[in-house]
Design brief:
CATH topology: CBS-domain
Strand content: 15-25%
Structural class: alpha+beta
Helix content: 40-55%
CATH superfamily: CBS-domain
Strand order of the largest sheet: 1-2-3
Number of strands: 5
Distance between the termini: 28 Å
Order of helices and strands: HEHEEHHHEEH
Number of domains: 1
Length: 143
């Protein structure tokens, strides 16, 4: 299965945050949308400037304390962002995410942000595949 199929099933909506937003605004968006990371985009979601996750916030809370909430997203974001394309295979993407220890990968098409895939999306799709295989086997055995 390719990433394009995952996006087709889940949708291509991506919540973004401006690099000048405060970390407090970032945290509010994460909570509001019940997600673990936001793509940082200076141009309203057309390009990827960085990614800011719960993990980034927690790490900076540990070193800077509550003062981090007044800092800008640019100060805490991960600037070197791993991305993928819709043609990538789900299995290879799962391995890559595990090896890199990342939970979210923006999907980029022709240099523009297209969608985002989380490790949860990868796991959900694999579970759906396993359920389909199980159902087919049960039908075969009973049939």
């Amino acid at each position: 299965m390719r990433i394009a199929e995952v996006i087709r099933r889940k949708g291509a909506d991506v919540v973004t945050v401006a690099p000048e937003a405060t970390v407090a605004e970032l945290v509010a968006l994460l909570a509001e949308h019940k997600i673990g990371a936001l793509v940082v985009s200076a141009d309203g979601g057309r390009t990827v400037e960085g990614i800011a996750s719960e993990r980034d916030v927690v790490r900076r809370l540990h070193t800077d304390g509550a003062d981090v909430l007044q800092r800008t997203v640019r100060e805490i974001m991960t600037a070197e962002v791993e991305t993928c394309v819709p043609e990538d295979e789900l299995e290879s993407l799962a391995r890559r995410m595990t090896d890199l220890r990342v939970r979210h990968l923006p999907v980029v098409v022709d240099g523009r942000l297209h969608a985002i895939v989380s490790i949860g999306d990868v796991v959900k799709n694999r579970l759906d595949e396993l359920q389909d295989e199980r159902d087919q086997l049960v039908t075969y055995v009973q049939g």
